[in-house]
């Protein structure tokens, strides 16, 4: 319960208290408690005078009432035991049983049962006579009681008795009402005191809570200002850290790019094309590949083959994003586009060998080889007669890459180092 709710309840309880107090009046109205008590005392005095003057009549009345009650109980007991309440009905039942016996067509067991019933009826006739005697007796007693009532009616004893009974009941009701009102008043007074104490307690709590709230509010204001400042510093530090990480990451990427030799992909594509043309068309020389290859690093020396010292394509290191490595010979054979494959069994073996084809026969290359030619911007040979010129172009292009590799690498490295210097300067400035 809040303080406001308690304050609102208190006036209602006060109204209830006033209502309860207003209903508790001992001398209010014509039938007040004191007037009823005085009237009861007067009735008792009058009844005492009447009882003294009519003592023998009242005793006779009480005696007759006792006798009538006793006879009534005897009559009820006899009626519950008798199958027939009149002599006429008993005689009628007896005549019917005797008529059955006179016919003589009954069995022995049936005759015995009829004799037993006749005996019971004869015995009940005596009780019926006794019942009739008792009924006549109770009638006479009631007549005597009526005479006694007539004698008593000459006085106002009966009226006084009825009035006394009514006033006694009314007095009991007033006593019960007074007790209820007193209990209600006591309960309301107790409740009022409890509410008053509760209001005082709540007001004390309210003052203490307000003081505590004021203190906490001041502390919160100071704390919130500190948090705002701390959050600002943290956000500033976070942004600075993210910026530094971004700059360092970019510098790292640039350093990685600087470590890659120039024209590495182009040289690798040239070597792969020359190796492919030599292995499939016997054009060019593998020795040229070995003598004219760039000086490999310590890690790339593991990519040299042990049989012919031809460097295998490096698919793990120093490969730029988007570079494509040529597949093996077996995979290249699977990727060929050859028309009319169903007629291959009918052709002779010499028709399936590109090395034995005529100079005017067209050449077919896998898509990966065609893509390599396109990367080097060299037109693929249309027939075997163009192969030497194409190999020569690839060799010249590869040699030009090798010749210019050191210069291009230094130029790229210098450019990247310049960019890194700018990034580091930006980092130091931040």
From TrEMBL:
Extent of Low complexity compositional bias: 350-360
Compositional bias segments (type: Basic and acidic residues): 24-34
GO molecular function: mRNA binding
Gene Ontology biological-process annotations: intracellular mRNA localization
Bias type Polar residues, positions: 292-319
A cellular-component GO term for this protein: nuclear outer membrane-endoplasmic reticulum membrane network
Record keywords: Coiled coil
Coiled coil: 54-107, 131-219
Region (Disordered) location: 1-34, 292-362
Protein name according to UniProt: Nuclear segregation protein Bfr1
Species annotation: Smittium megazygosporum
